[in-house]
Amino acid sequence: MAVIAVFNQKGGVGKTTTCLNLVAALSIAQRHPIALDMDPQGHLSLASGLKNGTVQSKSMAAFFKDKVPLAQLLHDTPAGWQIIPATLELSKIDALYGSDPQAAKMLKQGLAEELALTGAPIIIDCCPMLGVLTLNALLACDRVLIPVSADFLSQHGVNRLDSALNVLERKLQRKFERRIVVTRFDSRRKLSYDIYDKLKQRYGDLVCKTRIGETVALATSPMHGLDVFAFAPQSPGAADYKLLTMELMESGFV
């Protein structure tokens, strides 16, 4: 069972878009993935076609607050894969458990007890804040996928995030296998190529060969509660995420 945390502290880098379409591509490949929405904004849940009113009592918040087993919180999406959704109630978890050093291990224990036997890849859409929720995701995961949009500020942000992960590795005495995927890549702009080249120079093979172009279908599909494969299967965005998924599968990352 691969557990992958999709994480970046900077907004607008395609974190949720990457979660949504990676899970969809894995489902198409018959890998039967499970998505965990750990961001209180619940954007992955909405983009997956779930409505807030139907998930209030069966969400990630119920796991943390009421100790409801993860397997009882799974929802089927219209596309056929499963998700444990998020609601705004999840935003209270940091205040509830912020002083408890053991709280960061809750998700790891929950996955081991409830979902490990499924063997399904688990993709976690992390909260962008480095608090209790994100620490739960990082302690539970085997690997970290870092989406980075092709702009200067995002490139600068990934350097800080990499440093933060290095600090966590020393504190936790474990390694995070990681990959960086460049998103919102505009092939018409020299800047996009410059950002990609600089990331490759610094991080080498940790940077995925596949680059995710900025396309209308990727931006529009979540409005309809659909992944890009369901919304526009012949689009460049669908092709990009199919290639990314194949690359990650072939490398054993997922």
From TrEMBL:
Gene3D superfamilies listed in its UniProt record: P-loop containing nucleotide triphosphate hydrolases (3.40.50.300)
Taxonomy, superkingdom: Bacteria
InterPro entries: AAA_dom, DNA_Partitioning_ATPase, P-loop_NTPase
Bilayer-spanning residue ranges: none
Domain AAA: 1-176
Name this protein carries in UniProt: Cobyrinic acid ac-diamide synthase
